[in-house]
Amino acid sequence: MYSHNMVGSNDLAASKAFYDATFQAIGGKPGIQDEKGRLMYLHNGGIFMVTAPIDGEPATVGNGCTIGFAMENPEQAKAWHDAGVAAGGTSIEDPPGIREGGFGQLYLAYLRDPSGNKLCALHRVV
């Protein structure tokens, strides 16, 4: 069912620095920019895009929205988190670590990107 995800940005250069760092921390490649200026990240069969809004209005974040990225292990999630903080992101929620809940043990790390979009690195602990 999942095809892609796209977030808005008011500063594509800051977004590129942030997402290049976070995706490279988990084995991805730097984003490519298409002819419309959109950033595209292709990793593990998924497509993640960043763009200035096409309507010309400022980009805003979705209240209550979170974009989750699957991680291979807790170390990868922590590396993603640390790379994001170093590249201009903000650590949010609790510090990276294991949470207990209805879905079992999850290792979670949360960030806001430079535009305020909420992101989560998730590893299901077996």
Automatic annotation (TrEMBL):
SUPFAM superfamilies: Glyoxalase/Bleomycin resistance protein/Dihydroxybiphenyl dioxygenase. The keyword Lyase does not apply. One of its GO terms (molecular function) is dioxygenase activity. Keywords: Dioxygenase, Oxidoreductase. Residues 1-124 form the VOC domain. InterPro entries: Glyas_Bleomycin-R_OHBP_Dase (IPR029068), Glyas_Fos-R_dOase_dom (IPR004360), VOC_core (IPR037523). Pfam families: Glyoxalase (PF00903). This is Glyoxalase/bleomycin resistance protein/dioxygenase.
